[in-house]
Amino acid sequence: MYDQPRPNRATPAMTFDQMLERVRYEGAYPTRERAEAAVRTVLASLGRQLTGDERVDLAQCLPVEAALTLTAQIPDTQHLTGWGFVKDLAARTGVSPAVARWDTGAVLAVVTRLAGPDLLARILSRLPDGYALLFGQAELRQSQLRAAAA
User: Fold this and answer.
1) DSSP secondary-structure letter at 28?
2) DSSP 3-state assignment of 7?
3) Other C-beta atoms within 10 Å of 78: how many?
4) CB under 8 Å, gap of 24 or more: what pairs does 67-71 form?
5) At the N or C end, where does the chain have fewer CB atoms within 10 A?
6) Splitting the chain (150 residues) into consecutive groups of 10 residues, what average pLDDT does each group show?
7) CA–CA distances in Å: residue 93 to residues 22, 49, 65, 88
8) pTM
9) How far is CA 122 from the centre of its chain?
10) What is the radius of gyration, based on Cα positions, of the chain?
11) φ, ψ dihedrals at 126, nearest 5°
């Protein structure tokens, strides 16, 4: 069965190049290539954790190249906590957990701006504990997040 077509949303608020420059600034990366590597690895990892309408809606907020990276991933059956997400990213990329956390924060800070507060609340309500801090938000108990998203 096919999903119902979604209404066309406005084009993303920034181009992929603008997103890379913003991530480069947020992460203080020396090159655009380093920022792009961070964007691709973090969004791929997020794509393995995020499912449902929130995944689709987030992809619509991102530049096309970033959206393709997010949606090209098959969601994992094991949902990782925020710290598990960072450790998994570190293991997949061969960097220390501190570097993986830095990359995650730089990329998700930009994703937070693109998603907006309503979608971000929905995303956080679907993810296990620990993700709010990765998105630069105060960590609330899941029950509070679910109530806010409802």
Assistant:
1) T
2) coil
3) 9
4) 69/39, 69/40, 69/43, 69/44, 70/43, 70/44, 70/46, 71/47
5) N
6) 46 87 97 98 97 95 97 93 97 97 97 96 94 88 53
7) 22, 17, 20, 9
8) 0.85
9) 13
10) 15
11) -90, -20
CA distance 135 to 105: 6
Q: Tell me if 117 sits within 8 A of 126, measured CB to CB.
A: no
Could you identify the residue written with the tokens 């969004």?
43
Residue with tokens 């993700």: 131
Q: Looking up tokens 């190249």, which residue turns up?
A: 65
Structure tokens at 61: 């907020």
State the sign of the Cα–Cα–Cα–Cα dihedral 64, 67, 68, 69. positive
**Residue 31 corresponds to which tokens in the numbers above?**
């090159």
